[in-house]
């Protein structure tokens, strides 16, 4: 992946009762922002517009009961 591709945020739309799972390799990190809707990380509700930063070797999932859109940026 080129440096410009890594810097370009990607947006994902999750349908109700779905989740987005991700796993980061050593030395990588990403920021995930809730663009619209409602979602949670390990049961904690996400705040719309706030970037959540995840670091090296993280494994997590974002779940939505009602549907949402998230934006992911590799940093």
From TrEMBL:
UniProt keyword annotation of Signal present: no
Leading EC class: transferase
UniProt GO MF annotations: ATP-dependent polynucleotide 5'-hydroxyl-kinase activity
Keyword Magnesium found: no
EC code(s) of this entry: 2.7.1.78
UniProt keyword annotations, A-Z: Transferase
Protein name per UniProt: Cleavage polyadenylation factor subunit clp1
């Amino acid at each position: 992946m080129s440096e410009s591709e890594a810097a370009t945020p990607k947006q994902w739309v999750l349908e109700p009762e779905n989740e987005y799972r991700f796993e980061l390799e050593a030395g990588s990190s990403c920021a995930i922002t809730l663009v619209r809707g409602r979602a949670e990380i390990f049961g904690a509700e996400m705040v719309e517009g706030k970037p959540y930063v995840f670091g090296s070797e993280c494994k997590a999932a974002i779940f939505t009961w009602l549907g949402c859109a998230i934006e992911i940026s590799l940093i």
